[in-house]
Amino acid sequence: MKKISSLSDLGLHSDVSHSFFFKPINSTTASSSSSTLLPSSSVAAPRTTKITVVGVGNVGMAIAQTILTQDLCDALSLLDANPDKLRGEMLDLQHAAAFLPRTKILSSSSDYSITAHSDLCIVTAGARQLVGESRLNLVQRNVEMFKNIVPQLARWSPDALLLVVSNPVDVLTYVAWKLSGFPAARVIGSGTNLDSSRFRFLLADHLEVNAQDVQAYMVGEHGDSSVALWSSITVAGVPVLSSLEKNQIAYEEEALERIRKAVVESAYEVIRLKGYTSWAIGYSAASLARTLLRDQRSIHPVSLLARGFYGIPDDKEVFLSLPAQLGRGGVLGVTNVHLTEEEARCLQQSADTLWEIQQQLGL
Ligand SMILES: NC(=O)c1ccc[n+]([C@@H]2O[C@H](COP(=O)([O-])OP(=O)(O)OC[C@H]3O[C@@H](n4cnc5c(N)ncnc54)[C@H](O)[C@@H]3O)[C@@H](O)[C@H]2O)c1
Questions:
Q1: Of 113, 160, 242, 275, which is most buried by a Cβ count within 10 Å?
Q2: Is 275 annotated as a binding residue?
Q3: Which residues are in the Lactate/malate dehydrogenase N-terminal domain (predicted)?
């Protein structure tokens, strides 16, 4: 089937262009006595915000479409190893142009020059686990994929922020940091931003309040060993556990652990029911993009270089999620949340698990 590249290819006369509809304006300055046109070299290029998404599978497309509907950038470049799927997805998004703020959408299956000068690069490309394949083997395959992707992103956008979404997200954020050569503050994994939203949803649903009024963090590894910070949960500013204790309302530690497990298992349930997760990670990544690019300085639990925080030794270059202040410079600081001894112990365990995997990667 014929590939449509431009309307001139289809026979539209070349005189029918921008200048046919619009006369150029004279850029005379008001204060100038002589009517001079600005030399073109002194006219600054318009400031644009550009986001790149690598991988246009279920997750990449959910992120791309949330970014477009929330008007977070002026240019969006999409990359995927599958050229037909990529072009199909790009055209499908472009066909929504009449309903969305104007965003230039570019795509390529292999030419990373289209990503040049991105402010934020989001990596969602990822191999899926094969039947009988170990987790470590999957990690190795994704590391090989990242060796192809990350250096090219870094080359074309040396000042960008990198946001890793592909799983296992903590290990791959470490890999992206190593391969990019970027300062750690500019390499972030989506981490437990999503797990925390699932946690807040469950609590809010039970209490019949808006999830935005529930402050609750999951930290550590994105996945099975994530740690729920019960001691710091507040609803409308009221600390939950200490209020229960003050009012002598009993609760069981086992019930708290059952709720944490339900948060972890809710991802598996979505995958069992629809085959993958997409919408929530789309909103999670878009909320991170907004905070980063608009310098919102909001607190998000994200995967970051955690050495030196919460008792994680300085010689362990491990990435895991901690509540962090994010802005245009990336990670601006790690929040000093009080952890109980048990929470700190679980976080250490998460760090040990991730450290063991990282050491086998030979990076
Ligand atoms: N961090 C989170 O919270 C979270 C949530 C959901 C999914 N994920 C992860 O996101 C990743 C993507 O999930 P999905 O459901 O979109 O998978 P998917 O299989 O639908 O999409 C993956 C895409 O990556 C592309 N790809 C593969 N190799 C590539 C390469 N070298 N360069 C460019 N593109 C390449 C594939 O063609 C495919 O389109 C997985 O690793 C998944 O586990 C993370």
A1: 160
A2: no
A3: 49-189
Rounded-to-integer distance, Cα 332 and Cα 81, Å:
34
Portions of the chain given CATH number 3.90.110.10: 193-358
Residues contacting ligand 1 via CB (< 6 Å): 54-60, 79-82, 85, 124-126, 128, 145, 148-149, 165-167, 169, 190, 194, 222, 276-277, 281
For residue 175, give the nearest of 214, 141, 218, 209 by alpha carbon. Answer: 141
**Is residue 60 very low, low, confident or very high in pLDDT (cuts 50, 70, 90)?**
very high
193 is in an annotated binding site: no
Helix then strand then coil, in percent of the chain rounded to 5, is 45, 15, 40
Q: Which atom of ligand 1 is nearest to the CA of 277?
A: 6
300 is a catalytic site residue: no
Report the separation in Å between the CA atom of 263 and the middle of ligand 1, taken as the mean of its atom positions. Answer: 22
What residues does CATH 3.40.50.720 cover in the chain?
Answer: 50-189
Q: Which helix (H) or strand (E) holds 234?
A: strand 234-235
Instruction: Provide the pLDDT confidence category of residue 224 given band limits of 50, 70 and 90.
Output: confident
C-alpha distance from residue 210 to each of 203, 207, 214 (Å): 10, 9, 7
CATH topology of domain 50-189: Rossmann fold (3.40.50)
Token couple for 214: 């529930």
User: Which of the four pLDDT bands, split at 50, 70 and 90, describes residue 36?
Assistant: low
255-306 pLDDT, tens digit per residue, is 888 989 999 998 889 988 998 899 999 999 999 999 999 999 999 999 999 9
Domain range 193-358, its CATH number among 3.40.30.10, 3.40.228.10, 3.90.110.10, 3.40.50.720: 3.90.110.10
Q: How many CB atoms lie within 10 A of CB 91?
A: 12
The number of the ligand 1 atom at minimal distance from the alpha carbon of 59 is 16
181 is in an annotated binding site: no
| CA dist list (Å): 162 to 29, 53, 277, 312 | 41, 10, 21, 23
Does the pLDDT at position 129 exceed 70? no
